[in-house]
Structures are given as C-alpha cells and as structure tokens.
Specification:
5 helices, TnpV protein, rod-shaped, two-stranded antiparallel ribbon, 118 residues, 7% strand, mainly alpha
C-alpha cells in the first residue's frame, strides 16, 4: 500500500504528522481575532474545517479588513447624524468626544452583529 502520509511514533501509537503550509505573515487585527474567538467558541466544527483546509487565516484577514473599512465608512455617517461637527469640536470638545465615542460604539455593535457573530 502506497501511503503518502508520514507518521510519528508516540508510545504505542502512530500519529499523523500534519503540517500546515506557509501562511502570509500579516498579523490579525482586533476584528479578525474576535471572529476567531467566536468561531472557536460557538462554531467549533466550522472552525476546525476551516483550520484543516487552510481557509481560516485568509477568512480572518478578510473579516478584519472588511470590518476596518466598514468602520471607517460608518463613523463619519453616525457622527454627522449625531451632530458631532467641527464647530462642536471647537466650542465643546468634551461633548464632541462623548458623541464620537458613542458613534464608535454604535458602529462596533453593528459590525459585531453583521460580521463577527454571524
């Protein structure tokens, strides 16, 4: 029987010697790591399938990049709707910071629902 797999002897057992191919050296951002945690905790079968087929890391990079782009688009829209203008920034900076923090939190909640926890 021609078997292309190699095995490692561990006591009385032969364990398949599985190695992943090289992945890009780009590190995961906040949203990629959050997606990984979600998959690991709530969708373990999908996580393992993606990990073994080497599709997990590209998926996490795509989620991270998409989340960053969506965040950059949503925050200015939410800030405009909330009234966080440059005039407010000049006249009442603390109120402006509070509004911007609220806008960022709203945008992250939307991202969590749409991208991370789906």
């Amino acid at each position: 029987m021609n078997n292309p797999m190699t095995y490692i002897q561990n006591g009385d057992y032969l364990i398949p010697d599985l190695k992943l191919s090289q992945q890009p050296e780009k590190s995961l951002g906040k949203y990629g790591r959050m997606r990984k945690t979600y998959l690991k905790e709530h969708r373990p079968i999908l996580y393992n399938q993606m990990l073994l087929s080497e599709k997990l890391y590209p998926h996490l990079l795509e989620i991270d990049e998409t989340a960053q782009n969506r965040l950059e688009q949503m925050i200015p829209q939410l800030a405009k709707e909330a009234g966080a203008t440059e005039e407010l920034k000049a006249s009442d900076p603390m109120k402006w910071v509070g509004l911007m923090n609220t806008c960022k939190a709203q945008a992250e909640e939307i991202l969590m629902a749409e991208l991370i926890n789906s």
